[in-house]
Amino acid sequence: MNAIGERIKCYRKKIGLTQGELARNIGITQSKISAIEKERNYPSLETIKSLKDYFGVSYEWLIEGEDNIILSQKEKELLEYYNKLNEDHKLELIVRGKLMYESQQLKKLRD
Question: In this predicted model, what pLDDT tens digit does every residue of 55-78 receive, in sequence order?
Fold first, then answer.
């Protein structure tokens, strides 16, 4: 998978999104996603950032195909639900996740 459009299409399908759903979630049109996936257009820097943030992947993987993108089923499921949340709930989930991690680390120190 050498081209950015191929990576976007593959990952979009992997997490179960249509072109329209992905487009709405990152604020562009479905026709723009289609053109990017078919390598007719290259995504703007703003679109690349939106895709990176939405997919939760590195710039290196998205742009160059470098870096490891293999996610477990649980990670995919978590990312899928996270991406469906509004911004306030995303922030709340991050805060809760940090608190859970800190609690886990404290428990390890006590044991």
Answer: 888 888 888 887 666 566 777 788
The structural domain count of the chain equals 2
Candidates 59, 46, 44; CA nearest to 7 is 59
Let me know whether 60 and 80 are in one domain.
no
Nearest in space to 1 (alpha carbons), one of 41, 25, 37, 28:
37
Query: Strand, helix or coil at 72?
Result: coil
As a whole number of angstroms, the distance between CA 30 and CA 79 comes to 21
Q: Flag whether the pTM goes above 0.70.
A: no
Q: Rounded CA gap, 35 and 57, in Å?
A: 21
Instruction: Give me the pLDDT at residue 86, please.
Output: 92
**Residues 5 and 57 both lie in one domain:** yes
29 and 6 fall within a common domain: yes
